[in-house]
Automatic annotation (TrEMBL):
SMART domains: ACTIN. One of its GO terms (biological process) is DNA damage response. It comes from Scheffersomyces spartinae. InterPro entries: Actin, ATPase_NBD. The keyword Transcription regulation applies. This is Nuclear actin-protein involved in chromatin remodeling.
């Protein structure tokens, strides 16, 4: 264990949440066994789920997703239509899943009819003996401010297709409020209905929704999962797979929550202690295909090495054979053209040209040039230039070098120059070999001395090396500061550099007229006043100007620092990676917000593996790295997505937030009287939250805290949640349908035929007719 590890408390592994798609219930959709005609059927037709059942029950019999899929079975030559949970049971069908809704409104009425057929069949509905249609009144939900076209088409579907005796429509959030009120007819309050597509704020006075003062936010559960998916894809642009809507929905429902005090808690949200508690790791499915390599024995490794050596010898022999064949070919070619040259001696110029053209040459000059080049190539090979390292006796290889020029003819003198050049090259190589051999011997001697020193006094060796390392690091840092100071033109180093450039640009030492006259007639090579370059140190000014010398020194120091650190890491028990110069130059991930945002409260494993010196290939193929590349960290997203309800601008919505709408209602839209008997006084005593988003933790606390800051101190503010935010709308429909009040709110089939499809009967829990 390293020293840093011993100082940092060991943290337990983070829990990992596996991304999963929607899984339908194992049991098939139930069929209702206690059907009775005449009992109203309550249908909560939502854009996310459909809930339906006879109103004599305490809960709906059928609850399933509002989706339809049509699948063509080519073998059976039939088209299958699946509804609800059945669409998710077969993987091949999932790609064709569609919803009859577009936003909060139905746009595909064929699919809506299929869903109703499926529903009535599972409710065990028996056709009427008179009409052949449904013999049960229908209570159904519809959107707030439902367009006439929606209600007209639904009327046509229920009355003309199913022959329903009567139909009543209402608003789901008001039905939920009705189910959670002890005295519904006298209730006053504000209903916050958070649906799948929209969120509404509806004031209720004496049990009736005041729709003229209803406010809407274009934000619901569907927008939440879409926004969460976009945030995560933006956060991890190279993630291995794309989040499906059901995966994003599961993440939102399980891990997102509302902060009681957003601004205060957000300031500490990315601290390590807070992240340790709030960060969620989401793991995408991954399959490892590891190939287990069998370790080879020493005998097999020896055979492989011998095989490689044999291949090397074979290649050398092949190369030598090719050189030999090439030399023989050149010799044959030289002999052939030499015979041609001899034949040309007795021929006239015309025959010589014809003979050379037949041989492939343009003229005699071209022929002589090629023959001379071929002769030189052969001579070079014979002189041993091709194999300079195989020379054993220079006096035999280059015999003319030691013979005086007086004893040689012109041809031999030229050959002597070539041999002397070859011998000088050979001697230089031999000298380099000898120097390299001496350096190797010195290195071995130095390492032996270092080893003896460490064995004799390891502590002294370590201290000496540490001091030497500190000196190099200090010099390195000083040069870094100097290089940085060049970027500031007002610094002393930059001013000195500019002075050197100015000195090079012009010489101010001599400005006399005679000197200028001499300079006009002088060049760079003959100016008697120009003594620059006489001293070798003069040329260092160029190195000072372009910083080359400093950069070279930096590279040399970096190499020395690395070498010393490698020795200390190997032999010094108290020197760890955290003590190296490279570690001190790396960023502190604990104080880097971006690192904590992406990787959570733990260090990225790729950084630690890079610090260990592993290659990029090893890091990329490491199983843990592959696993981490399939993970996402949910931290800020857990609070940012629900916060859009209170701050819509965070998601690009140009709308007021929930608290702003509530404040506008109680302070401006109603009398603003928070004393006993005032309208605002009665409304704030019962703020009711329902719908799918009502299940978010801290929702009621946040509404209470924020709204309390807007109303007068001491006002009797009360905020409550629905007992069952998802099913209470249906329970309210069931409760309302069995009262005497509801009987006057149903539109009968006869009234529909007489008054038309735009006719509705108003009641306190539904839409009103705008006149």
């Amino acid at each position: 264990m390293t020293r840093a590890a011993s100082e940092t408390p060991e943290l337990p592994p983070q829990p990992i949440y596996t991304l999963r798609d929607y899984k339908p219930p194992i049991e098939p959709e139930p069929f209702y066994q206690h059907y009775e005609s005449g009992i109203p059927i309550a249908i909560d037709l939502g854009s996310s789920q459909m809930r339906a059942g006879l109103t004599k029950e305490l809960k709906p019999n059928n609850v399933f997703p509002s989706v339809v899929a049509r699948y063509r079975d080519r073998k059976a030559a039939t088209t299958l239509t699946l509804v609800g949970n059945d669409t998710y049971r077969d993987v091949s069908v999932r790609s064709s899943i569609k919803s009859p809704f577009d936003g909060p409104l139905i746009t595909n009425w064929d699919y809506a009819e299929v869903m109703l057929d499926y529903l009535f069949e599972h409710l065990g509905v028996v056709g009427s003996s008179v009409t052949g249609g449904i013999d049960n009144p229908i209570v159904m939900t519809e959107p707030v401010c439902c367009p006439f076209s929606q209600r007209r088409t639904m009327y046509e579907l229920l009355f003309e297709n199913y022959q329903a005796p009567s139909v009543a429509f209402g608003i789901d959030s008001l039905f939920s409020y009705y189910a959670n009120s002890a005295t519904p007819a006298k209730s006053n309050g504000i209903v916050i209905g958070t649906g799948h597509e929209l969120t509404h704020v509806i004031p209720v006075v004496n049990g009736k929704g005041i729709l003229t003062q209803t406010k809407r936010i274009d934000w619901g559960g569907d927008q939440c999962q879409t926004f969460l998916s976009k945030l995560l894809m933006l956060k991890y642009p190279y993630f291995s797979s794309k989040l499906t809507p059901s995966q994003a929905t599961n993440l939102f429902e399980e891990f997102c929550y509302i902060l009681k005090d957003y601004q205060y808690e957000l300031s500490n949200y990315l601290s390590l202690d807070y992240l340790e508690e709030k960060d969620i790791v989401a793991q995408a499915p991954i399959e490892f295909h590891q190939v287990v390599e069998k370790k080879k024995t020493e005998e097999e490794l020896a055979k492989q090495a011998e095989k490689r050596r044999e291949q090397g010898r074979r290649l050398q022999e092949q190369a030598q054979q090719k050189r030999k064949e090439k030399l023989e070919q050149k010799q044959q070619e030289f002999d052939y053209y030499s015979d041609i040259k001899n034949q040309l001696e007795g021929l006239d110029s015309q025959d010589v040209l014809l003979t050379l053209q037949d041989a492939g040459f343009d003229d005699l000059n071209d022929f002589n040039k090629y023959l001379s080049s071929l002769k030189k190539s052969l001579k070079k090979s014979q002189d041993g230039e091709d194999d300079p390292d195989q020379i054993e006796d220079p006096s035999i290889t280059w015999p003319l070098v030691d013979i005086p020029d007086e004893e040689l003819n012109d041809e031999e003198k030229r050959a002597k120059k070539r041999q002397r050049l070859h011998k000088a090259n050979w001697e230089a190589r031999e000298k380099a070999k000898e120097q390299k051999k001496q350096e190797e011997e010195e290195r071995i001697k130095f390492e032996k001395e270092q080893e003896e020193w460490r064995a004799r006094d390891l502590e002294d060796w370590c201290n000496t090396k540490r001091l030497e390392l500190a000196e190099y690091i200090s010099g390195y840092k000083e040069r870094v500061k100097l290089l940085d100071s060049f970027k500031d033109r007002k610094s002393a180093a930059a001013q000195r550099r500019m002075k050197n450039i100015a000195d090079l640009a012009g010489d101010e030492a001599n400005n006399s007229s005679s000197s200028r006259k001499r300079k006009r007639n002088a060049t760079i090579d003959n100016d008697p006043n120009d003594t620059f370059g006489a001293n070798d140190d003069d040329w260092s000014v160029y190195r000072e100007i372009n910083n080359t010398k400093l950069e070279e020194q930096q590279e040399e120091d970096q190499k020395r620092i690395t070498a010393l650190e490698e020795e200390l890491l190997k032999f010094d028990p108290d020197f760890h990676y955290e003590d190296t110069f490279a570690a001190s130059q790396t960023f502190d991930w604990k104080n880097l917000v971006l690192h904590k945002f992406i990787h959570g409260p733990r260090q990225s494993i790729s950084i630690s593996m890079q610090a260990e010196g592993k290659t990029p290939e090893e890091i990329a193929s490491h199983p843990e790295i592959i696993k981490r590349s399939h993970q996402m960290h949910l931290n800020i997203e857990r609070i940012r997505v629900p916060e859009v309800l209170f701050q819509p601008s965070m998601a690009g919505l140009d709308q007021a937030g929930l608290i702003e709408l509530l404040g506008d209602l109680v302070l401006k839209r109603f009398d603003g009287n928070f004393l006993s008997g005032g309208q605002s006084y009665s409304l704030i005593q019962d703020i009711f939250i329902t719908g799918g988003l009502a299940r978010l933790p801290n929702f009621s606390d946040r509404v209470f805290n924020d709204l309390q800051a807007l109303i007068p101190t001491g006002s009797p503010l009360k905020v409550r949640l629905a007992q069952d935010p998802r099913l209470d709308a249906w329970k309210g429909m069931s409760k309302w349908a069995n009262t005497e009040e509801s009987k006057a709110s149903f539109v009968t089939k006869k009234e529909y035929e007489e008054y038309g499809s735009e006719y509705i009967k108003e009641h306190g829990l539904g839409n009103v007719c705008l006149r």
